[in-house]
Amino acid sequence: MKESLEDISADIELQYGKKNMDSNIAYILSLLEARMKDGVLDDNIPVPSHEAAAKTILLLLDRPELSWETICRENRVRNVMEYLFIRAHSHYGEVHDFISGLLRNYVRGISPQTVLTFMNIWRFAVCQNRPTRFADEILYPEYADRILDTLRFLLDGEVGRGAALVMVCARDEGLVRNIAHAIVSTEFGHISKTAYNNYLHERFTDKEKNHTIGTLRTKIGYTKEDDGRIMFNDQQLSKKGLFFKLWRSIKSLTS
Questions:
Q1: Dihedrals φ, ψ of 223, to 5°?
Q2: CB atoms within 10 A of CB 6
Q3: pLDDT of 194-220, one tens digit each?
Q4: Cα dist. 101→56, 110, 136, 163, 228 in Å?
Q5: How confident is the model at residue 238 (pLDDT cuts 50, 70, 90)?
Q6: Phi then psi for 232, rounded to 5 degrees?
Q7: Do 209 and 170 meet the contact criterion of CB atoms below 8 Å apart?
Q8: CB under 8 Å to 48, separation ≥6 — which residues?
Q9: Long-range contact list for 66-75, CB < 8 A, 24+ apart?
Q10: Terminus-to-terminus CA distance in the chain, angstroms?
């Protein structure tokens, strides 16, 4: 019997360990957990020096083979990481100004272009493009970008019955949880509340549902096992998918 892609991936993980990004996410979460006290996040993290920040940014951009846990063995690098990814959670403006200051007064060994590159990555990961309430309902956050892109494709021009059909199928497939209009509209603002709600509990035909489900499976790229488990064809996550996964984990710790 041939091994499935899931079996092969598990075997690789067993022999060679988890992918760097998986372990990096786990490490950042461990830093968050260490700062949680009685359900409150302690983000009283001192401002790092420009030299320490420059070193950390260079390590992140130029040495991607190094795990974040490895580079954070140096206390000043760990302080920078906590400042950039934990302090910024509730003090975005302060950390943004700090990185902007680093750009204006960069130290020897780090170029303005390097800082700009990092700032774009950091801004995306920390504060910009935060998932909507609907995105939080996606049951596979690591594949949220694929799921959302496919839903946008299917919902193009749909405001009522067609929109309800798509959302019902997405829910029945096990891709999303809550499909109430108040939640769905945070991502898809063009959907009409009255028209959508009028059809949300309609009995759609098998032909209609099968066509929509087929499109979901093809464009997102997954199959469904007899026991209901979803198996994604390509398990390589995008940067946006990893961001959704990290965001969901951070939100669960700080909410």
A1: -125, 165
A2: 12
A3: 999 999 998 999 999 999 999 999 999
A4: 15, 13, 34, 46, 51
A5: low
A6: -80, 135
A7: no
A8: 56, 76, 79, 80, 83
A9: 67/20, 67/23, 67/24, 67/27, 68/23, 68/24, 68/27, 68/28, 69/23, 69/24, 69/27, 72/27
A10: 45
